[in-house]
Amino acid sequence: MKTVTDQIGRTITLKASPKRIVSLVPSQTELLFDLALENEIIGITKFCVHPYHFKSTKTIVGGTKKVHFNKIKELNPDFILCNKEENSYDFLAELEAIAPTYFSDVMTFEDMLKLIKDLGQICDRRTESEHLISKINFKLNDFKNFMQDKPERKAAYFIWANPWMVAASETFINEMLKLNKFTNIYGYMSRYPKVEIDRIRHEGDPDVVLLSSEPFPFKDEHAIEIGKYTNRTSTVFADGEMFSWFGSRMLLAFDYFKQLHIRLESHF
């Protein structure tokens, strides 16, 4: 018997280490794979694109916002992994009726490490989770050294256009912005608010505008439109996975961030 408290404060009890896992979050699917749980994963969402071969070897149970509960039930899972931001809390009652369900809630680096540790405990992958945490912390410390002489820059991180939406406080993206010494001009707001781009100078006139590759497919015309309202701002098409995928993606993210800053240095 295993008992653990998930990240929204619920007590999860499992009879044994799970052997049939459904993951409803792309970044957490990748994390499970990197914890050597490929054989245990049986169901994923259509947005779980890493590792690539999963789309042909695992059962697709819907998206992150709209899941097919009947498909999940047919898979007979013994553990379901969700996320407060990616999935709906309304899912919980139906999912819990199928199998023990863990809800993650990751807004900080510490939250992410706690998730990795919890999954290591739940899935009997303590050694793998400890090694992963150690490697991520090594990458983090190396990146902090890289950033020591870098200046603070004001930034805005856009996730949607028409309506224009940004990542604000209480998000993992904001945590990544802080690590990159980007001061979020919308940091006084919460979560993913709508903003008026014609007021962006009044909001803080960012040095850097980041247009995320997900969930919206930003194009050059969006950068041009924002540029009408900014003053000598550098606009970057950012890899959204690197800023928002918590978990083992961090092993790649810090190297990506280094290259991002090298590119930015040529703009200032």
Number of strand elements? 12
CATH topology of the largest domain: Rossmann fold
Q: Helical element count?
A: 11
The share of residues in helices is: 25-40%
Distance between the termini: 57 Å
Shape assignment:
globular
CATH class of the largest domain: Alpha Beta
CATH architecture label of the largest domain: 3-Layer(aba) Sandwich
Estimate the mean pLDDT confidence.
96
Number of domains: 2
Helix and strand sequence: EEEHEHEHEHEHHEEHEHEHEHH
> Per DSSP, what share of the residues sits in E-state strands of 2 or more residues?
15-25%
Largest beta sheet, briefly?
A: 5 strands, parallel
The parts where pLDDT drops under 50 for at least 5 residues are none
Whole-angstrom Rg: 19 Å
Overview of this structure, please?
This protein is an alpha/beta fold and 268 residues long. It has 2 domains: 130 residues, Rossmann fold (3-Layer(aba) Sandwich); 117 residues, Rossmann fold (3-Layer(aba) Sandwich), CATH 3.40.50.1980. Helix content is 38%, strand content 18%. It is built from 11 helices and 12 strands. Strands 5-4-3-6-7 form a 5-stranded parallel β-sheet, sandwiched between helices. Helix 9 links the parallel strand 11 and strand 12. Helix 5 runs antiparallel to helix 6 and helix 6 runs parallel beside helix 11.
